[in-house]
Amino acid sequence: MQEEFDNLEEFSREDTENALPLGWLILFIGLIVFGIYYVYAYTPAFTGWTQEKQLEQSMQDMPK
Amino acid sequence: MNNEFHYDYKTVQGFVLSAIFWGVIGLVIGLLISAQLWDANLNFGEYFSYGRLRTLHTNVLAYGLGIGAEFGLFYYIVMRLTKRPLVLPKLARFHLWLFNAGMVLATLSLFIGMNQSLEYAEFEWPIDIAIVILWVLFAINVLGNVFTRKEKNMYVSLWYVIATIITVAILYIVNNLAIPSTLFKSYSVFAGVNSANVEWWYGHNAVGFLFTTPILAMFYYFLPKSTGLPIYSHRLSIISFWSLIFAYLWTGAHHLVYTPLPDWIQTLGIAFTLFLIAPSWGSVVNGYFTVDRDWSKMRTQYLTKFFIVGITFYGLQTIQGPSQGIRVISSLIHYTDWVPGHVHMGTMGWVTMVICASVYYMIPAMYKTTIYSEKIANTHFWLVLVGQLMFSITMWITGIQQGAMLKMTAADGTLQYTFMETLVRNYPYWQMRTVAGIIFVVGMLFFVYNVLMTIKKGNDLAKQAA
Predict the structure, then answer these.
(1) In a domain? residue A8
(2) Is A15 domain-assigned?
């Protein structure tokens, strides 16, 4: 039986050479920046934040 | 420029039929366990109790339906994208038989209660070894084709296939490292918090590399093939691929928020989890922009809506998932029924939607014919969509309710509700979920019927031609 090829040439026509959408690029870079901030803010060695301290705080904040 | 050769489609079809067989078993078990949750009388002895069957449900659907379909569809995609038949077609046929024999043994072993007590890695060590052999056979064929390919360009689907093969191998072997004590019992080499960390590194990435990358491979291949619209941007598809692969493996710790796992590992896991929104949405945007060239395809090509709705639920899933990783949200919804709701939106709304659409495209293409009935396919589409939405929404509601009840405190600072009281409030939602499940399964039966009739139609045509 004869088999037709999957025309990858067809898949990669010129109109598929689109640049990255700007909105998506902002999301991409924004999440990297946020990730760096987040790791800094919630790592005990950098800021002293720990989940134990957070628990103690939430116990104190409870209405007596 | 056509050469005289043919592709081995019998093995591909064998995997699709196997996946359907295991899929129906897994779905029926799913219905039973959903009913067991609100009526304990539906537990019949130890073998048909919730504890046994829940494990069977997840494993039979993930490995039988999911991987079974992926083996078949991957062989098809790989042959066509490398423009050559499989390097070892007989090995692929052996792979098919071994897969089904292994599934029978694996299913029985869970049924009689053999279990190494690691979620999604329940199989005992002899079956683990069989799975590794199975995977190696698969890898030899696929990578053999990639290395000897007749097409220089590597389309993005091939990258996703390769990533799936390599990553699943690493994950599966590491998490299942164990010391056997008898033929049916072994002890994990990891203990305590290390065991938890490795288990969820595995568990989360099993979702990533069984339910995300393989499905994206299908999406990127079958969406352009069935609509005739080339992918919007290859650059975006490749950047999404590499950033997804880079970030995914760091994220498992988000399953262990507020546990004895060191704070910094949790934080790192959450940061990478949030980043995953970007590569995931890269594929979503690429899919939308591809069809954006001609939205009338949604009406004129019946498969378009499967892919677009599928990628939409992938998009929702990849916002919901990372949100759940954030500490404040995790503390509300973790340990509630929100979580099974999340998993099922992915598996019912994205994974099976795209697998079914790919099979709908591939089976007629193999026989050079058309689908048995577009009408039945459309009925299938609407039933699974309604069933899935009903499932997801009921679990959102009851998950938030349960999470809020677990956190509520009385005036004297004690807990307002017992755990049991939160479960009792789940009952009406669990009953609605069973109804949702029935609707979904009926939809899937329409799919099975349609595929079997298309194969019959193809065979009849072949006979006429002979």
Answers:
(1) no
(2) no
CA distance B440 to B351: 14
Q: Which stretches within chain A are classed as H helix?
A: 8-11, 22-41, 44-47, 51-61
Distance CA B241, CA B239 (A): 5
Quickly count: other Cβ atoms within 10 Å of residue B77's Cβ: 28
Q: How many domains does chain A have?
A: 1
A1: closest chain B residue by CA:
B6
Nearest in space to B352 (alpha carbons), one of B383, B310, B297: B310
Interface touch A16/B282, C-beta < 8 Å: no
CB A3 to CB B7 under 8 A? yes
Domain assignment present for residue A38? The answer is: yes
Task: Give B415's strand partners.
Answer: B409
B178: enclosing H helix or E strand:
strand B178-182
Cα–Cα nearest to B303, from B371, B367, B237: B371
Identify the residue whose tokens are 């019946």: B302
The 10s digit of each residue's pLDDT in B103-134 is: 999 999 999 999 999 999 999 999 999 999 99
Mean of the pLDDT values across residues B25-31?
Answer: 98
Q: Which two tokens stand for residue B387?
A: 């069933």
**SS3 per-residue string spanning B187-225:** EECCCHHHHHHHHHHHHHHHHHHHHCHHHHHHHHHHHHH
Encode pLDDT of B348-388 as tens digits.
999 999 999 999 999 999 999 999 999 999 999 999 999 99
Q: Which chain B residues are Cβ-neighbours of A21 within 8 angstroms?
A: 236, 285, 289
Asked if the model's pLDDT at residue B154 lies above 80, the reply is: yes
Q: Is the distance from CB of B163 to CB of B209 less than 8 angstroms?
A: yes
* Residue A32 belongs to domain spanning: 21-61
Helix (H) or strand (E) segment spanning residue B179:
strand B178-182
Tell me which residue in A11, A15, A50 faces B224 most closely, judged by beta carbons. A11
Q: Is A18 helix (H, G, I), strand (E, B) or coil?
A: coil
In a domain, A11, yes or no: no
List CB contacts (< 8 A) between B274 and chain A: 31, 34-35, 38
Rounded to a whole number of angstroms, the distance from the CA of B438 to the nearest CA of chain A is 38
